[in-house]
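Example 9 (inverse folding). The structure is encoded as follows.
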């Protein structure tokens, strides 16, 4: 762009210099022949200099008009090139989405028979599914962001599940859980792939500086990148996005702690869990803080990674309604530092605090029991009515916290 304007400047400068040379010639003639001009008027010589000026203007007029046309047409040309690039990208996305839809449906048909029984899943089964999901995820790189994002979450969840999966009673999962979850996510992918690709409302381009430290920007080069302002491609890597909440809703329904923990480890952000609690109008602490570690002095955090609502029937209950219970799944998502095994039910009830809402008055003493259910994971059982009451007591503060997290765009985990 700078070179383009430099060429224009040189052209104009040459033209101006040419005019000046003609004028200088006229002035020199007038200076050296003053007496002659005073004594005798020579119209032919004057006409000759004027003709030279007109001739130069005429010779350069075409170039000047062309340059002026380029100056005026450049923004239109640039916009047209951008539009053509976007059109080409949209066509490629639509074409890729059709292929993703076809491959996704094939996998659903393959996995469906496995949901008809409760076979115990082996680590090799997870590895096989992971290979299939990786293939379709790599295919989705040229597809819509919606499909790519869901497949990204699914791939990473399976990788995390495989890493910590062992065949023990408290870790195992069944074929209905694994393949049912895969089919549900792939069905959501198919939904997005069957929709019309969203056309951006504008072709505007914006510059983004990759350097977070402003004081360094004057000392480095090539720190700016350019992107379409209203046209996104690739993974939507935002824990507060609708995609993450919809994905986590499916994860929460899987009722398997290993899968929940692996999914939570992607962002380690409680935003989707808070959204799901909000929809069900119940409240439980999304983040718990146990006492400081006496050996390492570290501040450890325990996160709510899922919950399930169930009914409890008792033999001989008669006509009494079943008791409605909620099973809250909490976990330490860190694989490099374990401490959950050292915490017992009594210390959780007495020493662990809710730090999501200050002075929420939520009492862990109301928990019925604690159950170990996986790597650095346990469940707490509460009566549903108590969690509903706590939601009513804290509703305004919950909504304010949710709004503020969106406005400030701060990772909820980073605030503790």
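The amino acid assigned to each position is listed next.
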């Amino acid at each position: 762009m700078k070179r383009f304007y430099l060429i224009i400047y040189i052209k104009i400068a040459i033209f101006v210099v040419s005019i000046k040379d003609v004028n200088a010639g006229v002035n020199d003639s007038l200076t050296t022949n003053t007496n002659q001009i005073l004594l005798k008027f020579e119209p032919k010589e004057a006409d000759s200099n004027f003709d030279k000026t007109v001739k130069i203007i005429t010779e350069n007029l075409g170039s000047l008009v062309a340059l002026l046309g380029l100056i005026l047409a450049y923004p239109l040309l640039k916009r047209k090139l951008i539009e053509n690039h976007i059109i080409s990208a949209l066509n490629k996305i639509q074409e890729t989405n059709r292929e993703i839809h076809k491959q996704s449906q094939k996998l659903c048909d393959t996995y469906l028979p496995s949901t008809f029984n409760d076979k115990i899943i082996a680590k090799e089964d997870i590895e096989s599914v992971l290979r299939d999901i990786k293939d379709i995820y790599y295919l989705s790189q040229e597809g819509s962001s919606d499909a790519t994002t869901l497949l990204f979450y699914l791939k990473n969840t399976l990788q995390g599940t495989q890493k910590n999966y062992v065949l023990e009673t408290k870790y195992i999962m069944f074929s209905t859980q694994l393949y049912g979850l895969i089919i549900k996510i792939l069905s959501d992918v198919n939904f997005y792939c069957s929709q019309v690709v969203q056309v951006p409302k504008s072709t505007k381009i914006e510059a983004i500086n990759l350097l977070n430290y402003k004081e360094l920007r004057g000392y480095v080069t090539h720190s700016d990148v350019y992107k379409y302002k209203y046209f996104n491609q690739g993974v939507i890597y935002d824990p507060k996005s609708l995609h993450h909440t919809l994905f986590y809703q499916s994860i929460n329904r899987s009722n398997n702690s290993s899968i929940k923990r692996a999914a939570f480890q992607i962002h380690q952000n409680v935003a989707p869990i808070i959204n799901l609690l909000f929809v069900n109008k119940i409240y439980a602490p999304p983040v718990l803080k146990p006492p400081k570690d006496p050996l390492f002095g570290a501040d450890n955090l325990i996160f709510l990674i899922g919950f399930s609502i169930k009914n409890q029937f008792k033999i001989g209950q008669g006509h009494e309604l079943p008791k409605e219970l909620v099973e809250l799944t909490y976990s330490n998502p860190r694989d490099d530092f374990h401490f959950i095994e050292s915490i017992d039910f009594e210390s959780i009830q007495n020493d662990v605090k809710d730090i999501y809402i200050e002075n929420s008055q939520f009492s862990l003493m109301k928990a019925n029991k604690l159950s170990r259910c996986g790597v650095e994971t346990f469940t707490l059982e509460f009566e549903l009515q108590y969690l509903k009451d706590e939601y009513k007591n804290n509703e305004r503060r919950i909504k304010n916290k949710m709004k503020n997290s969106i406005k400030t765009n701060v990772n909820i985990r980073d605030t503790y």
